[in-house]
From TrEMBL:
<dbReference type="InterPro" id="IPR037294">
    <property type="entry name" value="ABC_BtuC-like"/>
</dbReference>
<dbReference type="GO" id="GO:0022857">
    <property type="term" value="F:transmembrane transporter activity"/>
</dbReference>
<feature type="transmembrane region" description="Helical">
    <location>
        <begin position="307"/>
        <end position="327"/>
    </location>
</feature>
<dbReference type="GO" id="GO:0033214">
    <property type="term" value="P:siderophore-iron import into cell"/>
</dbReference>
<feature type="transmembrane region" description="Helical">
    <location>
        <begin position="231"/>
        <end position="257"/>
    </location>
</feature>
<keyword id="KW-0813">Transport</keyword>
<keyword id="KW-0812">Transmembrane</keyword>
<feature type="transmembrane region" description="Helical">
    <location>
        <begin position="111"/>
        <end position="131"/>
    </location>
</feature>
<protein>
    <submittedName>
        <fullName>Iron ABC transporter permease</fullName>
    </submittedName>
</protein>
<dbReference type="GO" id="GO:0005886">
    <property type="term" value="C:plasma membrane"/>
</dbReference>
<dbReference type="Pfam" id="PF01032">
    <property type="entry name" value="FecCD"/>
</dbReference>
<dbReference type="InterPro" id="IPR000522">
    <property type="entry name" value="ABC_transptr_permease_BtuC"/>
</dbReference>
<feature type="transmembrane region" description="Helical">
    <location>
        <begin position="190"/>
        <end position="211"/>
    </location>
</feature>
<keyword id="KW-0472">Membrane</keyword>
<keyword id="KW-1003">Cell membrane</keyword>
<keyword id="KW-1133">Transmembrane helix</keyword>
<feature type="transmembrane region" description="Helical">
    <location>
        <begin position="143"/>
        <end position="163"/>
    </location>
</feature>
Amino acid sequence: MILRFAVLAALAVVCAGVELVAGRGMPPGVALDVLGGGGDVTERHIFWQLRLPRTLVALGAGACLSVAGLALQSALRNPLAGPEVTGVTPGAVLGAVTATALGLAGWDSPLAVVLAACAGGCAGAALLWLLAGRGRGDAAQTAVHGVLVSAVLGGLTAMVLLVEPGELGSVVQWLVGTTEGRVWQHWHLLWPWALVWGAAAWLLAGPLTLLRCGDDTALAAGLSVRRARTLALLCAVALTAGAVAAVGALGFVGLLVPHLAVAVFGADLRKSLPGAALAGAVVVCGADAAAQLSSRLLAAVPDSGRLTVPVGALTACLGAALLLVVVRRTPSRTF
């Protein structure tokens, strides 16, 4: 088990290293020179003030989304429950976009963005909970309602963007998910939020493990099912909101990475929750490194301008392909 954690930690370091040297604007050799203490003022600014916080934000956001996804899937006993398909992510995006459009939040007030995203995520989760009704235990039915809720919230977000297109500008990045332009302010906002709510989720590892076994088993063990589920959902919504406020809606990270974590670390969430955090950090940071490498290759194409590949587009495409492969290989399973 320790070896598995060590391997994931090593992968995270490798992905972070690749991302630090892979971006546009500075050759890898120059980035390595800056890392060793060299480089001019501009090169040091690019490396220490732009690339490093971007890498840290990618690692933190991936960890948040993966832990949130595992908490959701365990609390709802639904392998299809993830921030992307339970209304949490689109609700958080809608909250952030609406608050920005109303002038209540913006990049000059990042805490307001997080609070607005958290409120929107809670509203999205509550809407799904109400619509699912008595069918909450049915994974397929909950997934269908989740898709409907996500579509409705996405439509509302599009309406807000149409009503206030001039004031929102780059807020469209929340719809796709990107780490472009992330600076130390984003990291200083994300890490304490992730630490507090991640620790809260880990403290709920025992109750969540019981919930995975079913409500009857949890009740027989003396667990207050309603309270434990409510606290777990609160942690999941808060972690998702923090990640969305930092990088936008990264598709499929919170849905598929938890399955990988459980497969590697087992069903005991005291181990698989930290494992999910590490795996999510590796996936998002690795995807961002790949996106930056792709953007570097695109720069060599004539008339490409400053075209960049957002990490959210990459995670969505790869996640959808992986989900299709899993479903085709296990047609008899719900997942």
